[in-house]
Design a protein that fits this description.
By secondary structure, this protein is an alpha+beta fold. The chain has 2 domains: 129 residues, no CATH class; 177 residues, no CATH class. The chain has 9 helices and 12 strands. The strands form 3 sheets. A 5-stranded antiparallel β-sheet has the order 1-2-3-5-4. Helix 3 runs antiparallel to helix 8 and helix 7 packs antiparallel against helix 8. The longest helix is centred in the first third of the chain and has 21 residues.
Length: 328
């Protein structure tokens, strides 16, 4: 079965399940009605018409603790796992996410233990969406600009050194502290539409020489341009390339976009076009400016410090594109 037919089958299973919940007496009277989706995975719907997925495992697996989030509930043991949403606001995204994860499992031909591990890992990567009481909502302007920068770097700069598989594997912005992670280097992307070269840190050590590999910054200054590309343009252009090369990579990229809360339903909101004005590269060496020590009284906990770094005053740390690519 090709990927198109597989996804069509998944969509049909969901439609059939919801239809039977309305029309079939057996389904109507069930607290949880299920229909087989793929292999050990069953789509489910509860008495409140909220969807879920049941995983029937043939032998005990060492799963550990189940992922937690405000928007879903997970019950089960090492033989069976049941995941469902607990609010109607999450329904459409949940169904889309389940289809993408199962497509990944199908394309990679994963069986039982590897399959369940893949499922749970990709579920937890989307946790932020299920923590938002107001989901689904469009990306903030700041998030749009940030994602624009990440996709530009991925598809226009790092592609000069990495193949598409390594590019997508390296893109950790949706799930980790830094946007790109390689064996020897971390890369953080900062993007602005202003003339300011001051960048924000999302934590007290995000931009600091304290990690087990070299940290570098790519700072993009972009401007509105009717002849440029929108966020949707950038993403669709790269999806077209991936579709031609590999269904697996195409699906993996869609999964990571979903984990960024990028949803097709908001595409009309992302129509602003930009062009790259300036691209700046910096390396974060031991003498890079950062807060080295914070005295924390015992009475304080969960301390988080954010601040701005003025890159105008960091010229000694500037490198060029070639120097950065050599490190990857």
């Amino acid at each position: 079965m090709n990927v198109y037919d597989f996804q069509k089958q998944l969509n049909y299973s969901w439609k059939d399940l919801f239809r039977k919940k309305k029309e079939d007496k057996k389904f109507i009277e069930s607290d949880i009605a299920t229909i087989k989706a793929h292999d050990i995975y069953f789509f489910s719907i509860d008495k409140n018409s909220l969807p879920g997925v049941s995983i029937n495992i043939s032998h005990n697996l060492n799963i550990g603790s189940f992922p937690k989030a405000k928007g879903w509930k997970v019950i089960g043991n090492n033989k069976k796992i049941e995941i469902s949403v607990n609010n109607i606001v999450y329904i459409d995204f949940f169904i889309k996410l389940m289809n993408l994860i199962l497509t990944k499992i199908y394309l990679k031909n994963l069986t039982e233990e590897k399959s369940v591990k893949c499922f749970l890992e990709n579920l937890i990567f989307a946790k932020n969406f299920f923590e938002d009481d107001n989901a689904p909502r469009k990306l903030t302007k700041e998030s749009q600009i940030g994602l624009y920068g990440e996709i530009h770097v991925l598809s226009k700069i790092l592609t000069k050194k990495l193949n598409n598989k390594n590019l997508i594997d390296s893109w950790t912005g949706p799930s980790k502290k830094h946007d790109f992670t390689r064996e020897k280097i971390l890369i953080e992307i900062k993007t602005t539409t202003t003339n300011s070269k001051k960048i924000n840190t999302s934590s007290n050590n995000q931009i600091a020489p304290v990690f087990d590999r070299a940290l570098n910054i790519i700072f993009l200054q972009i401007k509105n341009s009717s002849s440029g590309f929108s966020l949707v343009d950038l993403i669709n252009n790269y999806l077209t390339i991936l579709k031609t090369e590999s269904e697996i990579l195409h699906n993996d990229f869609l999964l990571k976009l979903a984990q960024c809360n990028y949803l097709d339903i908001h595409n009309d909101e992302y129509s602003q076009k930009y062009e790259i004005d300036k691209t700046n590269y910096f390396e974060v060496r031991d003498d890079f400016p950062y807060i080295k020590k914070v005295e924390t009284p015992d009475e304080l906990s969960d301390l988080s410090i954010t601040y701005k770094i003025d890159l105008e005053k960091c010229e000694n740390f500037r490198i060029n594109e070639e120097q950065l690519l050599e490190k990857i």
